[in-house]
Amino acid sequence: MMCTMMGVLVITGAWAKVFGGPGDDFAYSVAIGATDGNPVIAGYTTSYGNNGEALLMRLSLNTGDFMGAITYGEASYLQEARSIIATPDGGFVITGKWERFLWLFRVNYTGGIIWSRGIASLAGGAGGYAVARTSGYFLSVGYLADDIFAFLWNGSSGDAGYYTNQAEDGEQGPLEIKALAAATAPDSGVIVAGWRYQDYYYHNTNAYVFKTNPGSLTRQWDRDIGDDYHDEEAYSVCVWPNGSSAIAGRRDGDILVVNLASNGSVSWVKRYDAGTSEAAYSIITTSDGGYAIAGVRAGDILVAKLASDGQVVWARTIGTSGVDVATSLAQAPDGSLIVVGYTNGIGSGGYDILAINLPPNGEYQGCLSSVSLNISGTSLGSMSGYGALGPFACYLYGGDLTPSTVGVNPAILNICQPLYEENEEKGWIPSEPRITCCSAPGALIFYSDIETEIRIYGSDGRVVYRGDIGEGNNRISIEAGVYLWQAGPYKGKAVVR
Question: What's the pTM value of the predicted model, to 2 decimals?
Answer without folding.
Answer: 0.81
